[in-house]
């Protein structure tokens, strides 16, 4: 089912490793030569994964994105 990249910001991002809700998708990094998605950038707002400080954006490599659903983006980050 096709969707607009701008619609990703409306979906919850959930870490499958621990069930934590992460920040919304703020940006998408794309390799301009190949057209492949490299990563999703999540808007920071709280402490992530126990080591990144609050307010910093979090970059999730595309390989860690497991499923993009109608309401949720599932990622798996240890």
Structure commentary:
The chain is mainly beta. The chain has a single domain (5-75), classed as PRC-barrel domain (SH3 type barrels), CATH 2.30.30.240. The chain is 0% helix and 38% strand. It is built from no helices and 7 strands. It has strands at residues 12-15, 21-22, 25-30, 37-42, 58-61, 65-68, 72-75. The strands form 2 sheets. Strands 2-1-7-6 form a 4-stranded mixed sheet, with no helix packed on it. A 3-stranded antiparallel sheet has the order 3-4-5, with no helix packed on it. Strand 6 (65-68) and strand 7 form a beta hairpin. The radius of gyration is 12 Å and the shape is globular. The model has no long low-confidence stretch (mean pLDDT 87).
Provide key terms for this protein.
single chain; 78 residues; mainly beta; SH3 type barrels; 4-stranded mixed sheet; 3-stranded antiparallel sheet; 7 strands
Report the end-to-end length measured between terminal Cα atoms: 29 Å
Percent in helix: under 10%
CATH topology heading? SH3 type barrels
Strand order of the largest sheet: 2-1-7-6
Instruction: Provide the residue-averaged pLDDT.
Output: 87
Number of strands: 7
Which radius of gyration do the C-alpha atoms yield? 12 Å
Write the SSE topology:
Blueprint: E1 12-15, E2 21-22, E3 25-30, E4 37-42, E5 58-61, E6 65-68, E7 72-75
């Amino acid at each position: 089912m096709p969707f607009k990249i701008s619609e990703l910001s409306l979906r919850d991002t959930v870490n499958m490793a621990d069930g934590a809700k992460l920040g919304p998708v703020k940006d998408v990094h794309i390799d301009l030569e190949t057209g492949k998605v490299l990563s999703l950038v999540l808007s920071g707002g709280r402490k992530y994964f126990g080591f990144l400080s609050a307010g910093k954006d979090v970059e999730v490599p595309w390989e860690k994105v497991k499923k993009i659903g109608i309401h949720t983006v599932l990622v798996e980050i240890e």
